[in-house]
Design a protein that fits this description.
By secondary structure, the chain is an alpha/beta fold. It has 16 helices and 14 strands. The strands form four sheets. Strands 9-8-7-6-10-11-12 form a seven-stranded parallel beta sheet, sandwiched between helices. It has a three-stranded antiparallel beta sheet with strand order 1-3-2. About 50% of the residues are buried.
């Protein structure tokens, strides 16, 4: 049965949307219909369901099929009119402030995608500088780029489907990072995306840090399956997964990876591929970490990376098991090197301009049965190129697991089929099977039916 809803509410503008030009106000009226409206509605519904333990997009849509949200252009800005909205977003008839702020962040980014970047033309934008410019302007529009601040943003990656031991561990790591003044950036969802923020929040209070940053980077295809957790105070929606991944490493100064499923493997492969393909000597600390109980997870990851991408890829990260304090100390030490490196190459602290990203990591990949079957999964290619192909394979699996378009593809045509070198396919199948056996593909309690088939 559907949960309780709020019949009707009007929300006054907050943030950058309380000061708009008349031209911008007029353009808003066109967002109440068509493809952009559907994207805005879906993202808004996800925000108003912040904190739910559900990654089933179809169930969420069915539960709130009568939900509507309309933009009301006014001379003084844009108001939002919501009908049949989830009651969990309100207290005593008023929307929770954090939810309201994130809702207007959604509107801000959807407006920007529509009126400035032109979402329909993003696939034709090319790559290289143009893509990076799009990422930069999206982050600047959200006021995420802070000048004259030393490097202190730690990007935390990991799965939305993790057990209580791993979740508590992510909180402790976040706590230790927060005690050392680090801000936290994650994919904004539950699990390993929420834990570090929750731990850091306590530490920031203890250290009397008045303006802590809990940055959540997401994209329209994933937000419904990974609704923003309540701690996020800077929500930013990038156009697609490739620009989201680029935003993480352009904005962040170091990365901590916790256990996860295909999405976490995608992030790891992306990062290693970019760093292997970069020849400009960037210092970018990367740590893989887990509690003692989950040590085998990164043992498997490290074995897969070594046997496919080689020792150079393995040299780009350090594995720390069961020691959150040591990890935070190491990150603090390495941040001194990051600052010195950025100064030596004259790169900005707030946006990693000079890190080179090969175009294959920037070009949008749409997972279909055809595109997945045509991936170049063969060992006879440069390691960074193989990493890009494996990244796309993982991206397709994520789409088939939780994204609306991918789920629709699987319903129509069955599982994606992955072809390639026999030995590589065996390694890939072994890794994916370990994710399934450890219940990392869906939230705990959900039955997982694989959306892929590794052809060996």
């Amino acid at each position: 049965m559907p949960s309780e809803v709020i019949d009707y509410s009007v929300l006054s503008p907050v943030g950058s949307l309380d000061v708009l030009s008349m031209n911008e106000v007029n353009k808003l009226s066109g967002l109440n219909k068509g493809k952009m409206y559907e994207m805005f509605r879906r993202c808004s519904l996800a925000v108003m369901n912040s904190g739910i333990d559900n990654d089933d997009i179809e169930q969420l849509e069915n539960q709130y099929r009568d939900f509507e949200i309309n933009i009301v252009p006014q001379a003084r800005g844009a108001s939002l009119e919501v009908q049949n909205a989830p009651a969990r977003a309100f207290v005593d008839g008023k929307m929770i402030q954090g939810v309201k702020e994130n809702l207007f962040s959604v509107l801000r980014d959807i407006i920007y995608l529509s009126t400035q970047l032109d979402l329909d033309e993003l696939n034709d934008i090319g790559s290289g500088p143009q893509i990076t410019e799009a990422v930069f302007h999206t982050l600047r529009q959200a006021n995420a780029l802070q000048a004259r601040v030393d490097p202190n943003i730690v990007v935390c990656w990991g799965g939305h489907s993790i057990g209580s031991v791993e979740y508590d561990y992510t909180k402790e790591v976040g706590y230790q990072l927060g005690l050392r003044g680090f801000d936290i950036c994650t994919g904004c969802g539950p699990g390993a995306m929420k834990g570090p923020m929750k731990g850091a929040n306590v530490a920031h209070v203890k250290q009397r840090i008045r303006t802590p940053r809990y940055i959540g980077l997401t994209e329209p295809g994933i937000i419904a399956a990974e609704s923003p957790n309540p701690i996020v105070n800077e929500l930013i929606i990038l156009p697609d997964i490739e620009k989201r991944l680029e935003a993480f490493i352009r904005l962040g100064h170091g990365v901590v990876v916790f256990p996860g499923g295909a999405g976490t493997a995608e992030e790891i492969l992306y990062l290693l591929g970019v760093l292997m393909g970069s020849d400009n000597g960037h210092d970018f600390p990367v740590y893989f970490t887990a509690p003692e109980e989950s040590a085998d997870y990164f043992k498997n990851i490290d074995e897969f990376v070594g046997s496919t991408l080689g020792k150079e890829a393995q040299s780009l990260y350090e594995i720390i098991i069961g020691d959150p304090e040591q990890l935070a100390i190491r990150m603090k030490e390495r941040m001194v090197d990051v600052k010195a490196n950025r100064k030596s190459i004259q790169d900005a602290f707030y946006f990693n301009w000079l890190l080179k990203i090969n175009s294959v990591f920037q070009e949008p990949f749409t997972p279909t049965h055809k595109s997945m079957s045509e991936l170049d999964l063969h060992m006879e290619q440069p390691p960074h190129a193989l990493a890009s192909q494996l990244r796309r394979a993982m991206s397709g699996i994520v789409a088939g697991n939780v994204k609306e378009q991918g789920i629709s593809e699987i319903h129509k045509h069955g599982p994606f089929k992955l072809h390639g070198d026999v030995e590589l396919m065996k390694k890939l199948d072994k890794l994916l099977t370990s994710f399934v056996n450890q219940k990392r593909m869906k939230l705990p309690g959900s039955k997982y039916v694989p959306c892929y088939e590794v052809v060996t």
